[in-house]
């Protein structure tokens, strides 16, 4: 996004009028949606936020804070059954709540919608009671709600609670309560990541993925997978595999639409949707191992206690590594990847056929 913003004039509106995000992507989408009238300013603020982020801004990372949180969790579950225990989470993400309340002005979302700069914003979370993927969206009045067997869309005013819910990694962070339900990371039950954008009327979709194009081939005998390695593998599968399947489905639908008469396609509510998939050129694991030492010592101690190794369990470690040097390296990687595909991206973003 940093690279794309530089291809437009300083006061140019955003080339995107629909934003959809899940997990950390929900935070990015919401931040950018607040500044659709001035795209470069929105990207600059978001880039500044990530560049100056520390672990302590996301969760309690001191010995005192972590022990206090785990002690409260244990005490709450030792009380009588009629006492409602808080949602379980190994880490306390209240610092993230405070940060989002400070840096995001949610009232700007409705203003951008009213001025026509923003058509819709969607944040996806998982309902732990119903095991459904729930997309909370705020947008134009003509956007209808939707219901599928495992997914629903609910019109709502996006708040900090929705972002915390969408980014609440199971077991690691506590679920967030929205209405009468508890919600966690949106990737868990999201079998069709592109659905929110399509339901809101998108005709072109730029997909920014976190799964690298290729993984390095190990030059040594790999150790037997432990609990942490299996957990990281499952989390990677949750976040990446559904997107690949949804892209294949979109490609098949586009091929079908191209063979159907336009009148029939309109009657069946079918349309051609162009997609551009941008993913990292290099895996994150070597960077995680390189910048692991920048994590707070209390977090590293907890990881060692749980048997998590930075070299063998880099996948799961990457979800907890929030330090400037690591994040800035990722930003530079994304910036360069976009620049390497500049001509293709500019052609895709152009309004010309």
UniProtKB/TrEMBL annotation:
The UniProt record lists the keyword Hydrolase: yes
SUPFAM superfamilies (alphabetical): FabD/lysophospholipase-like
Protein name (database record): Patatin-like phospholipase family protein
Domain called PNPLA: residue spans: 15-198
Keywords, comma-separated and alphabetical: Hydrolase, Lipid degradation, Lipid metabolism
Superkingdom of this protein's organism: Bacteria
């Amino acid at each position: 996004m940093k690279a794309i913003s530089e291809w437009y004039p300083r006061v140019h509106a955003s080339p995107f009028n629909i934003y959809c995000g899940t997990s950390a992507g929900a935070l990015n989408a919401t931040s950018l949606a607040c500044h659709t009238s001035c795209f470069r300013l929105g990207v600059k603020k978001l880039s500044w936020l990530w560049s100056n982020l520390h672990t302590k801004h996301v969760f309690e990372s001191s010995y005192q804070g972590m022990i206090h949180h785990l002690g409260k969790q244990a005490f709450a579950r030792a009380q009588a059954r009629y006492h409602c225990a808080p949602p379980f989470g190994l880490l306390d993400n209240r610092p993230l709540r405070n940060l989002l309340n400070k840096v995001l002005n949610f009232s700007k979302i409705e203003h951008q919608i009213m001025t026509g700069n923003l058509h819709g914003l969607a944040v996806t979370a998982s309902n732990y009671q119903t095991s459904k993927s729930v997309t909370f969206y705020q947008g134009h009045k003509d956007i209808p709600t939707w219901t599928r067997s495992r997914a629903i869309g609910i019109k709502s005013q996006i708040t900090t609670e929705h972002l915390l819910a969408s980014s609440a990694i199971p077991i690691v962070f506590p679920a967030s309560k929205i209405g009468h339900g508890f919600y966690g990371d949106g990737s868990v039950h999201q079998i069709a990541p592109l659905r929110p954008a399509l339901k809101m009327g998108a005709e072109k979709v730029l997909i920014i993925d976190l799964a690298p194009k290729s993984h390095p081939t190990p030059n040594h005998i790999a150790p037997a997978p432990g609990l942490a390695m299996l957990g990281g593998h499952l989390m990677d599968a949750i976040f990446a595999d559904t997107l690949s399947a949804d892209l294949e489905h979109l490609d098949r639908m586009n091929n079908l639409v191209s063979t159907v008469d336009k009148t029939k396609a309109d009657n069946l509510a079918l349309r051609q949707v162009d997609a551009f998939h941008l993913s990292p050129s290099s895996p994150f694991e070597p960077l995680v191992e390189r910048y692991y030492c920048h994590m707070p010592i209390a977090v590293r101690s907890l990881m060692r206690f749980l048997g998590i190794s930075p070299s063998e369990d880099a996948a799961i470690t990457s979800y907890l590594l929030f330090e400037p040097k690591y994040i800035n390296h990722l930003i530079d990687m994304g910036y360069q990847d976009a620049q390497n595909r500049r001509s293709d991206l500019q052609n895709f973003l152009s309004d010309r056929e």
